Queue: 4 jobs
Job 1
Amino acid sequence: MRYATKALFTLSAITLTSLCGCSQGSGDPQDELAGPCVIVPREPVLTLLSASDTRWGNDIPSLHLSNISFTSPGGVTTTLDLAGLEQASIDPLVQNITLDPDAELLVCTLPCALFFAPGEYAFTASSNGYAESEISVQANYAVYEGGCPGYYDVGTDITITLDPGPAEGIILHTETPATPEN
């Protein structure tokens, strides 16, 4: 009786695992694997390709991103709190992003890629010598390969332009003092 109970338990576990697994119905043994159905992003949903200044079109090599918020397709808005985060907590698929926890901002060395959930992202973009710019973008994936497992791919790419801000430490015009006459 003891062996029959153990065999029944093992058979039940195998059956439950098979029922909870995924199948693509192709008949290929590789597609008939048991396990949870996982759908993963192959790349971040948002890539900042480049930034330039509006006056001369010069490339801006890096951006500071702050005041970051996300609104899900269901309308729930979340603000990203950078205080207390550590660089190690940033997902490895995120590209060219470093965390400046003291300034509570992300530093994006362009091009950079971040975020994985489709939805609306809003943030402040700035760089040394440029005025801050409020950015809002609807980020989505262009490719969804369904089935089990499945994946999302080809996120939204954007470019940003910033207005030159007041120059710091640069003297644009000086008055020449009058020379005393002898």
Job 2
Amino acid sequence: MKKIFVSLIFFLILFFSFPSKQFAQLASLSRGDRIRITSQEYFYQPLVCKFDQINLDTMAINISSKIIFIPLGQIQRIEFSESLKHNTVNGAILGSIFGGISLGITMYLINENSGGWSKVGQPGFWGGLISGVLIGGGIGAIIGYNYLTDDWQEIRIIKRIEL
């Protein structure tokens, strides 16, 4: 019984010792890093720009070779692009869905118009569905692999309270 209790305490400590979300530090940014800033006072939507420098209360960003200073108190969220990622899985899933539905319906209509089986449970529909999933998934995976997006990681902002 004592071993079970000690093991339970050990696993609880281990479980709560890992943070649920990793945050980067502002100090880890270097000049020219690609960042995304959310600030309701300055921008209507998140702005993608390049990091220039940071002081105690302001951040300098580079937008089209122009330096803009933003007070840290006006920034709600800062994220930096850790790397570019391929969207292979998303492309394969979307391609499978659209390919399966479209080829399944096409095969169903071809069989119905040619005097063949016209019920959804017959081989024409299921053959088209399976073929469409495989073909659409393959084409979607190729397209998704070639479509790169930023892998954003949030930077925690600790705001000073002035008295």
Job 3
Amino acid sequence: MKYDKPLLAALIGAIAIIPHEAISLTAKYLGWTSMSVFEMNSKLFDQYGSWIVGVLTTLLTSAVVGFIFYEVLRIIGVDYIILKGIAASMTSWLIFEAILQMVRGTSGEPVSGHFIHAFGAAVAGLVIGYMFERFLISPVPENHPE
């Protein structure tokens, strides 16, 4: 079966953010953080943070992160891809936090919220690394000489 690997990488990136949202939404309802990752992402465009706008912006930005991660993997290799996925996801979350603080002056999150979102980004990176390994990286057959 032939498929477009960069498009699949972007789709995996968009899917991988869903566990991050589940973690941050659960933490929001428990009172550990003031907003979910979708609401935080929408604060780039809206002062108060809208969940609906956040769905669109977060899926788009995470798809871009998935595509960039795929292109970077072509350069640096696919060894330890799950650890690289975690590092890429946490780095992209950190860059987004820095951009949000530059645009809004503050992220509006308590300290516990930063830990929750960092953990959610690590889980999203774990998911993206596993899904890349499972669906994008072709295993080398045992009888194939390297």
Job 4
Amino acid sequence: MEEVFKPYLNTDEELVWVDQPSPGALAQQYMSESFHGLFGCLFMLAITSMLWAQPTVNAAAFYLVAAAVTWGWGYSLVKLLKPFWHFFMARYLVYGISDQRLIIARTFPSKRFTSYFPSDLEPTETLDRGNDIGDVTFQKEQWKGNTRKPQFRKVGFFGIKDFHKVASAIDYLKS
């Protein structure tokens, strides 16, 4: 895992910690969205069965309703399958702490590295997921969601082993 970071480190920079997330813990974060997707699929199944039973008189109305139903199915299926996607993608995610910054690397579909320097970090928060696996969050990023009001999402290392030691290492880096 360390070889992922080697080409991107400064010459005077040294890795302190490297790990990958637990696929199950990463997928567990999205279970509530999966339940929303399940209910959406059930709702779309009911709508589709009602529309299937009704003969369509107007072709334009049929295409409009078919487009809305197709969009509803797609949205619901994306929500339903989100935990499985994150479970699969966990193998392409690597977390690292150097003596100068925190790094999150995604290696698929293309390599993308995000660095967080000590001046960017907020107080760390931890969440215990059991079996010495947990989450360490160190920043909140503004994210434009479905509403006009800005939303924030937590940034951190999710589903990692020895998360208390990692939180201590991050706090040490900030000081």
